[in-house]
Structure formats: C-alpha cells, structure tokens
Amino acid sequence: MTGLLTDLYQLTMAAGYYESGKHEERSVFELFFRRLPHNRNYVIAAGLAQAVEYLVQLRFTRAETDYLRTLPQFHNVSAGFFDELLRFRFSGDVYAIAEGTPVFPGEPLLTIRAPLLQAQLVETWLLAMIGFQSLVATKAARICEVAGARGVVEFGTRRAHSPEAGLFAARAAYIGGCAGTSNTEAGFRFGIPVFGTAAHSWVQSFPTEREAYEALQRMLGPETVYLIDTYDTIAGANLAASLGRPLWGVRLDSGNLVELAHQVRRILDDAGLRDAKIMATSDLNEYKILEYLAAGAPIDAFGVGTDLATSADAPAIGAVYKLVELGDGDGKRYTTKLSEGKHTMPGMKQVFRYRDHDQIACSSECGDPASSVALVRPVINRGELVEPLPDVDAARKNAQECLRRLPLACRSLFETEEKYPVEYSAELRRVSDRVLAGLNQEVAT
Amino acid sequence: MTGLLTDLYQLTMAAGYYESGKHEERSVFELFFRRLPHNRNYVIAAGLAQAVEYLVQLRFTRAETDYLRTLPQFHNVSAGFFDELLRFRFSGDVYAIAEGTPVFPGEPLLTIRAPLLQAQLVETWLLAMIGFQSLVATKAARICEVAGARGVVEFGTRRAHSPEAGLFAARAAYIGGCAGTSNTEAGFRFGIPVFGTAAHSWVQSFPTEREAYEALQRMLGPETVYLIDTYDTIAGANLAASLGRPLWGVRLDSGNLVELAHQVRRILDDAGLRDAKIMATSDLNEYKILEYLAAGAPIDAFGVGTDLATSADAPAIGAVYKLVELGDGDGKRYTTKLSEGKHTMPGMKQVFRYRDHDQIACSSECGDPASSVALVRPVINRGELVEPLPDVDAARKNAQECLRRLPLACRSLFETEEKYPVEYSAELRRVSDRVLAGLNQEVAT
Hints:
2 copies of one chain form a homodimer.
Chain A: H1 8-19, E1 26-33, E2 43-44, H2 48-57, H3 62-69, H4 79-86, E3 93-97, E4 102-103, E5 110-115, H5 116-121, H6 123-147, E6 151-154, H7 163-176, E7 180-181, H8 184-190, H9 200-204, H10 209-220, E8 225-227, H11 233-243, E9 249-252, H12 257-270, E10 277-280, H13 286-294, E11 301-304, H14 306-309, E12 319-326, E13 333-334, E14 349-353, E15 358-362, E16 373-374, E17 376-381, E18 384-385, H15 392-405, E19 422-424, H16 426-444
Helix pairs in contact in A: 2-6, 6-7, 6-13, 7-15, 10-11, 11-12
C-alpha cells in the first residue's frame, strides 16, 4: 500500500513534526462521525479489515520520496525526514468497534494510538475506507429491513465510484445484510456468495429470444433466471413458462413492477411453476421496495445496484479523525478544537453499550460489566495484530443480532424525533470542561 | 488487472457464448448515458486513460478460474472456456470521445468492437470507471465555472468512496478545471499539481497556536497557509497578521464564511498584508460558492472536498453499455432492446459536432468536414494503442476550450428548459425504424 495515497498536508505536517522533534510523540486520534446522515437513525460500522491491512502494509518507496522532494513544500525539510518515511512501519496500537455494530454520533469507530507522524499520515485513507463501507453497510441494512425474508443481492459495481469502490461496496453490503453480490472479485477475495445469470445483450445476441432462453437453461439448469423484458415482458414470461423446469425464476427490469409482477406470477402459476421465483431490479432502493411490497407485489427477491453502491440518498458521511490526546505520562495533554459547529470531545474514549442506551466514557473508566458491553476493543498492539479479525460472515451476523436489539423506531427508514440515547460519562464531561476552560483562558489572553 | 472485478453474469454469459460457439462473433457495444444527471446540462467525458489501461492489461490467473469452477453456474461449462479465460488478451478495436469533451445523452463515450466474449466481460469495469470520472469532471467544471478566476483545489479523498475513488476523483476534478488536488498519489502518478499545508491537529499538537504558526512558517515560507479557526478565527487572523511575511495566506474552515472573510481581509490589510490570500473550505459546493461570491465575500481560492469527490447532488450517472451490432459482412445484424423507457438505438455510431448542435449518425456516414468535427475517434486497433493518449493537461485544456464554446444557458448550475440540440441523422433513423419493424413483427408472431 502506497503512503502517497493521502492528502499532501498529512505529509507536510509529518515533515513539520519531524523538524520540530515531535514526530515520535505519542498521540491518540479517534475516527467518528458528528451527525447521522440523511434519514439514518444509526450507522453500521464497516471497513475495519481493510483499515488494518492498510496500517500493517503501509510503505514508502524511494521513487515516492524523490517525488516529494521536488515539491516546494519540502524544500526546507531535512533529508532525515525522507529516510524516516522509507523506514515507515506502523508501530502503534489500534482499538476499534467491531464491524457490523450500529454506532452513533461521537462514538469512535477506530482509535489510533501511535507516534504522531504515523498517526497523522494515515487519516485520509482510513476515513475514505471506513466512511464508505459504513455508508454502504447502513444502506444495505435499511434495504434488507424492508425486504424482510426476501433476499437482496447487491448489483451496483457498474455504478460505484470506480471499480475498486464496487468491490468494497459488495463487501459492506453483505455485512449490512445482503444475501450476496454480483461482484465476482468480492466472492473470490472475501468469500461472499455471488449471483448473476444474463443481461439483455445475451437475449439480443441470439436470433430469437427462444434460442437465448434455451441456451441459458442448458447451461444453468436450476440456476436459470430469465431476464424477460428485452422486447416484451409478457411475451417473455409466456416464453419462460413454456420452457418449464429446470429454472430458478424470472427477472423484471423495467416497466411498472407491481403490475408486471402480478401478471407474470399468474403466467408462471398457470403453467404449474408455482416454485419459480420473481426477482425485480431497475433502480431500486428501500423506499421503492417499501412501496412495491405495500402494494402487494409478488416479488421474491430484489437486486439493488446504483442506490446501494453509492448510498445515493446519503452519498457521504461526515466522518472525521481528530487528535484527542498528545504526550505520555506527566506530559499527557488532552486536545480539542473549538471551531464553530465542529467542537470535539478531548481524550481517548470507550463506549459502553447498555440495554437501552450508550455511554461514551474516558478509556480509563470501567463500565458495569453486568449490564454493559465495552465496544472499543484492541485490534493492533505495537504494530502486531492482537488476533485474527472476524470474517465477513461474523460481521454480518453481528449486524443482524445488533439490529434486532435496536428499538423499532430506530430502524425506521425515516429520521425519528427521538434519537437513540447516547450520553457522556460524568468523568468525560469533567475532562472536557477542564480542557475548554484552559483553552478559553488562553484565547482570552 | 483482474478479470474477476466484474459482474458474475458477464462471466456466465461469456461461458454461454463459448458453449454456443458465439464467443468469437464480432460485436459492437457502446457506452453512453440515457439522461443528464440532476441539474446538469452537459457531462464532461473522463476516465478513458484508465479504461484503455484496463483493456490492455486485463488477465485471468489460474486461481481465479479455479474459483469460478467452484460456482454452480459453471458446473456444466466445458474446460475449454477456462482455458479461453487464461489466454485472455483484448484483441478488439476501441473508439472514444476525447477526455474533457462535453457530451450529451445517447452519445457513445466509448465504443468497443471485439469478439463477443471479450466485449461482454469488460462492461462492468468500464461503466464504473468512466461513469465516475465523468461525474466528477462535470461537478468540477460547474464549481470552476462559478469560482471564475479564483482557484479551486480538490480536497475530497477522505470522503470519496474508498481511497482509490479519491485518486480518480482527483484526476477527474483536474480535467474538469480544478487547479490541483490534495491527493499526493494523483500528483505522483498523473503529474497533477498538489496542494496542502496543515490541519487542526497541527495547531492542537503545539502548546500554543503561536508556536504552531511559527513552526509552519519556518518550514513552508511563502507556501504558508495558516488554518485560523482551530480555537477562534479572529484571534487566529490577528496572530497570522502579526507574524507577517512570508506567507501565502490563511484558510477559513468554519463559521459564517462571508462575514469572517470580510473581517479577516480587514485584519490582513490593516497589517499591510494586502497580497495575503484567503482560502475557504468547509463543505463547499457550486451552490454555496455562488452564494458567497454573490454576497461579495473576499475569498481568493476554494478547497472543495466531499461534494466534489462524491458528486453529492448527483452521485450516479445512468451510464449503460449496450450491444448495438453483431456479426460481420453479410451476417451483420443491428441489435436493440425495447424495454419500457430503456429503448436503445441500434448500430455503431459517430457523433458530429457542429457549431450549435450535435448529430448522432451511423459510423459509416461522413459529416461535413468544413462545419463539423467527428468526436468518436479510434483509440485501440486490434488490441494495440493507435497513438499515445492525451495527458491530463491536454484533457483539461480540451474541457476548457469546449466549455467556452457551449451556450451560456447550457453552463447554468440549474437545469435549463432548452436542451442542447442533439439530432439523429436520417440514415440512423432509417436503420432504427427497420430494426424496430423487424422486432415488432417477431414479437407479434
């Protein structure tokens, strides 16, 4: 993993820390979001596995440091800094909330305790990976909530923000509850179930629709899904019905899905294919699925692409990565910023999850182990993985179990008046007040 | 580049083409979008360089084909298909519209003429890369249009849909008109100017704001940009002013940017720093910049992140990749689909750009060379690059020149009633009518 895939200011700051002799100072940064995205009442944490891989593998090459030396920002920087980059190995500690866990504003999804130079450099990459996967996992959870027992498959790679984004969208969507993905690399690399049969071009490529269907059935047998809308959906359904078993079912990809699903269901049933399923695709999202199911559309499975892989109604999460502590022992200092609307709570934190609320506390506090769980757990210790991370299936199961325990209102598709209760501990509030008082005094003088 | 980073159905169709003996049939696919995204009156084509790299480098490994063999969809597929994948080398022709060119619905940004198996497999990757970069280049063009002579720098990697998306967002934003990016890898890999100085954590990491500013100025000299809102913007501005030259200027990142810019301008001017500049950041986009500048805010440069790197108000473009021709010589067949709302025009196309309108024609037609330019140009011939592609600077220049020639209304931030005129040639309409008549007859029988 290249160290240059970061904002330039991380590198100029790293150089500045080096020049100021501060680069090895122990620092703590926390990654969290300030506000819930549009219409969300929770966010599903995801992307930790890639974050850990990145931290462990991060390196700089000579060609990269040579490039930096050409930039005017580095003309006054001493050679030792570039040697420091060439020797870069992440040697810090990482704490995190497990993938699949619903989280709320202010809760640290990831905590990095490391020499200042290291912890600073990795901000950009971590925010992009964890922010994006968390957005998509959340979107998937919403879609699956509405779809209920009907399977939802992630089909969005073609509309993702670059092919790599499609790969990570597939991973996050699975964690959020999807049954699988069309992204084959996600199946190969992460062991996620993959789905897919044929597109319109398949039908078009044969002289007749019948020949296209027959060739598909010969190859796929019971996995066969006919895409029936290339020319005329009802004619396509009749053709599919006439071919009989083996088949999984048919796919609708255009037109009024509610009406068509009813008509197609009748055609299949009349042909004795009661076990043949109907899958719907075509610019779906949780809102449309809610509407179609409320209208009684006999749809058995959904393929969701664009809106899922881009989290289209909330395409960004305001995730931030903030310095909350600096120094060690007696030299330890809590840090914050006062910027309007962007104030942050100082100090390294823990999140205690109780049955009906969360408490954000100082990392040194002990919650009540009988009634609460500490969500922020060690992941990397002095550069070494503490234990293998849970795989995607475990993360997916974690999401399902956690979501079941959330209040129903919290799982609404729409913003609820009553927020999930998250409180600060008395100790954390004391620390924050103390830091603020000190800063305000300084600003005033 | 791995061949598995695609939808599974591309691979099942590829297998089906192989089994049906159609995999070497000559096919033509076109990549285009059906409708303009929200509030857009044009789209800037981008991503071609990565598309070409992908096509030339695409390979399959034994581990990948072994994985495919484990999937139920491939149980009936003969071994020869997997050998075909292991031998995969793109051997087709590619035509494209140059990066930076404004394009309109129905115009083929990319045309692939290749054996059916090859052309089918690459759909997903090409759509994701070209769709995304075109979205961001378009967003950048809108932002730069509003900012006028003031520089706009792309700062969005942290909010992009994965770090790699951030890299390509930086590239596309530069093509669309940005002065540069904070993404250092984009500077290293594509030669894009990079910018960035320091974040709040820099200020927080020093015992006092003054020490932070002094250390920055020592390192950066005339490149120094003070981020002045960590604790109190006005106090920060006074501190910056007191340190005097060398500096580039200051950055505002929170609060009411119009009021603060006026106050800070006065503080800098009063200190004799009339040449010190004010940069603004903080969840900006073209709409906010329009408002701030209309309110007379003395801002000299903008850093735009989240909304640019995610094209937040239009996070997806309905780009599609459609089979339009199949076969060769006498066996050549034009193809289309009739799906409701998703009809496509058959046959390989050319786009002639006249002074005040575009004409989409059959690829065999000749436009009027005196009054029009043929936009769709050969890029790859039989798997080989025809000539080196223009670099990002040439693409950026192309965008600037083309945008200048667009009608003012077309460059509005908002959807205009009057669309840019794009017509079909008489010949293309004849071809389409003929194909539709044939299909309708077939569906009717």
